[in-house]
């Protein structure tokens, strides 16, 4: 279970590097907009942006303009939001539960979202009045509520090491809840889905950014920023959990309130992201570990670094998913796992060598 | 600052871990808690530290009930060193000690030079200043315990609670930690396993099955009869010809 990665002191990244953040994000989004099945030159992108944002009136190809504005730009921005949100949720859950394997989907959110999605699309719940996203969001919320109730029932009345046992109860309740909702999803698919529907839903479960429009960005961008602000505001509280929940309490953190609030808000951010683009795995697990390796474990650095890295990683993964197989878009979850797993392995091996 | 407990009860799954415990620790005093395994020393310390709210009874800081105080205010008064607190995070010693400033910082208030000075002072006090940049997982058990104590000192507490701080340490580190604690100008409540070490406290309290069965100066409380009844051992007192101190010599278990 030891993911203590290296023995050299964490790299000192100083605050004067912070100005790079918007630049890196901007470049990632530009790359996401430019690269694709048809490559679009940068100057065309800038012209389209100028036309859209302040009506500059440059002459550009209408098809290019449509691809850039309606399709790729919104998609790249939302990919960034999802990456940042999922990475932040990973940071918070790993810090609070003191478990290196914690990730945003631990609380049953992805399982609940998929149940909600199949309930709407295949079982026909809501009779067409409910969108897939709304169904997924409701499913995620329901699963989260169930997991919290279960964790509460299992964790109450315990004695010594309240913090540790509560963390254990949350993890076990999350596993039980996820299994239950995965079983429900499988049940609905097996009972009533056609082969075509089953394939479609599998695509969605692995993460799908192809349906993204500006409306999604209008929801995803505030969610990601709210998540970032909540984490930054509580950065010292997150640090205080370094030696466990009891230690945090003796450092003056109202553990129950802070932990409940942070987990609930990260669950909300995750549910918003998952309901739009499906359950994209690996980002929330790997990015926080990789960033701990680079900037250290203090959340003043870790939180912004993880948000940035998650955003850039997912924009990059989306680019790869669009170009790696000509004429076909892979589910982005396949790419994040294919890229993320070896990258993670390299970090682990390097870490153990340095030690 | 006076820390007192008033008829504390603590029950878990029908097991009574604390049963009507009352005690008052006077300002500046070093108070030792002794008792066999499972007698409730750790539970009592957790209650005194404000980590547990007892089912019945209350804890007072001076004359103020602890449970009316925000957790942050408690942490500005009381620091607690747990028996074993570990982490997998890659943090250096200085960062671990800096956590002690948490109750004095807010989200908008930045880390100041004043905080830096307090952390340096705490590191110096436990003799860890030269290891300030070492990573946590490269430290030995004794060094980790010192860092935990330094973190507690960085809280600048009026009352310091220590749960068997000498556990798992070699004899040199045991003695140096006890000397360190003795020198601190704060009220100390310390749970101890080594009864000879407990003799150095101003007063000691004896825990037995969740009850505090005796309180007083060590020479009055620690008697051959007490050791037989509470700890189940046959022991004798020997006089040290060097400094006239009394030493416990344990003969056999009963």
Q: What is the structure about, briefly put?
A:
The complex is a heterodimer of chains A (355) and B (254). By secondary structure, chain A is mainly α.
Spell out the key features of this protein.
heterodimer, A: 355 residues, mainly alpha, 0% strand, globular, B: 254 residues, alpha/beta, 4-stranded antiparallel sheet, 9 helices, 30% helix, transport (chain A), ABC_BtuC-like (chain A)
Notes on the protein architecture:
By secondary structure, chain A is mainly alpha-helical. Chain A is built from 14 helices and no strands. Chain A has helices at residues 20-34, 42-54, 62-97, 109-121, 132-155, 162-192, 195-205, 214-233, 235-240, 245-250, 255-277, 283-295, 299-323, 332-354. The longest helix of chain A has 36 residues, at 62-97. The two termini of chain A are 16 Å apart. Chain B is α/β, with parallel strands linked by helices. Helix content of chain B is 30%, strand content 30%. Chain B contains nine helices and twelve strands. The longest helix of chain B has 14 residues, at 141-154. The interface between A and B is large, with 41 and 45 residues.
Most strands sheet of chain A = none
Give the H and E element order of chain B. Answer: EEEHEEHEHHHEHEHEEHHEE
Report the strand count of chain A. 0
Reading the helices and strands of chain A in chain order gives HHHHHHHHHHHHHH
Radius of gyration of chain A: 21 Å
Number of helices of chain A: 14
Q: Strand order within the widest sheet of chain B?
A: 6-7-8-3-9-10
Q: Outline of chain A, from the CA principal axes?
A: globular
Give the integer mean of the pLDDT values of chain A: 84
Helical run tally of chain B = 9
Q: How far apart, in Å, are the first and last alpha carbons of chain A?
A: 16 Å
Low-confidence stretches of chain B: none
Specify the biggest β-sheet of chain B: 6 strands, mixed
- Tell me which oligomeric state these chains represent: heterodimer
**Percent range for helical residues of chain A?**
over 70%
Radius of gyration of chain B using CA atoms only: 19 Å
The helix-and-strand class of chain B reads alpha/beta
Distance between the termini of chain B: 41 Å
Low-confidence stretches of chain A: 1-12, 157-161
- Please give the number of β-strands of chain B: 12
Kindly state the mean pLDDT of chain B as a whole number? 89
């Amino acid at each position: 279970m030891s993911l203590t990665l290296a023995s050299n002191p964490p790299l000192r990244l100083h605050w004067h590097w912070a100005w790079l953040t918007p630049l890196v994000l901007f470049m990632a989004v530009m790359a996401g907009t430019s690269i694709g099945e048809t490559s679009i030159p940068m100057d065309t992108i800038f012209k389209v942006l100028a036309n859209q944002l302040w009506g500059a009136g440059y002459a550009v190809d209408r098809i290019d303009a449509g691809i850039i504005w309606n399709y790729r730009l919104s998609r790249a921005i939302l990919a960034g939001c999802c990456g940042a949100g999922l990475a932040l949720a990973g940071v918070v859950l790993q810090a609070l539960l003191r478990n290196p394997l914690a990730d945003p989907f631990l609380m049953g959110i992805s399982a609940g979202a998929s149940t909600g999605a199949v309930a709407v699309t295949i079982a026909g719940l809501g009779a067409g009045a409910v969108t897939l996203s709304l169904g997924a969001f409701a499913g995620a919320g329901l699963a989260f509520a169930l997991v919290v109730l279960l964790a509460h029932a299992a964790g109450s009345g315990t004695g010594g090491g309240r913090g540790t046992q509560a963390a254990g109860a949350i993890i076990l309740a999350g596993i039980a809840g996820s299994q239950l909702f995965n079983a429900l999803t499988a049940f609905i698919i097996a009972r009533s889905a056609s082969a075509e529907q089953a394939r479609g839903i599998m695509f969605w479960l692995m993460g799908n950014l192809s349906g993204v429009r500006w409306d999604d960005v209008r929801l995803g961008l505030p969610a990601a920023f709210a998540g970032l602000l909540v984490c930054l505001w509580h950065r010292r509280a997150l640090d205080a959990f370094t030696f466990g929940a009891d230690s945090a309490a003796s450092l003056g953190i109202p553990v129950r309130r802070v932990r409940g609030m942070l987990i609930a808000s990260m669950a909300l951010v995750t549910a918003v992201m998952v309901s739009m683009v499906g359950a994209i795995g690996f980002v929330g697990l790997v990015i926080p570990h990789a960033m701990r390796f680079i900037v250290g474990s203090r959340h003043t650095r870790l939180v912004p670094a993880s948000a940035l890295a998650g955003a850039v990683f997912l924009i990059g993964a989306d680019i790869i998913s669009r170009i790696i197989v000509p004429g076909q878009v892979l589910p982005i979850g396949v790419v994040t796992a294919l890229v993320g797993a070896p990258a993670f392995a390299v970090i682990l091996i390097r870490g153990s060598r340095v030690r | 600052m006076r820390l007192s407990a008033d008829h504390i009860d603590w029950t878990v799954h029908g097991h009574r871990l604390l049963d009507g415990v009352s005690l008052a620790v006077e300002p500046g005093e070093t108070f030792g808690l002794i008792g066999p395994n499972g007698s409730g020393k750790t539970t009592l310390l957790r209650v005194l530290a404000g980590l547990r709210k007892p089912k019945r009874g209350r804890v007072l800081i001076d004359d103020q009930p602890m449970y009316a105080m925000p957790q942050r205010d408690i942490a500005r008064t009381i620091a607690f060193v747990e028996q074993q607190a570990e982490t997998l995070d890659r943090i250096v010693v200085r960062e671990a000690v800096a956590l002690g400033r948490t109750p004095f910082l807010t989200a908008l208030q930045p880390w100041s030079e004043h905080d830096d000075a307090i952390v340096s002072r705490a590191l110096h006090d436990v003799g860890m200043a030269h290891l300030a940049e070492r990573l946590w997982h490269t430290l030995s058990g004794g060094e980790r315990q010192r860092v935990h104590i330094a973190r507690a000192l960085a809280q600048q507490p009026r009352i310091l609670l220590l749960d068997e701080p000498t556990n798992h340490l070699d004899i040199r580190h045991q003695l140096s930690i006890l000397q360190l604690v003795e020198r601190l100008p704060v009220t100390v409540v310390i749970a101890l396993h080594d009864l000879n070490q407990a003799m150095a406290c101003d007063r000691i309290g004896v825990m037995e099955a969740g009850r505090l069965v005796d309180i007083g100066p060590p020479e009055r409380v620690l008697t051959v009869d007490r050791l037989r009844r509470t700890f189940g051992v046959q022991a004798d007192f020997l006089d040290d010809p060097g400094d006239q101190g009394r030493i416990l010599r344990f003969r056999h278990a009963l």
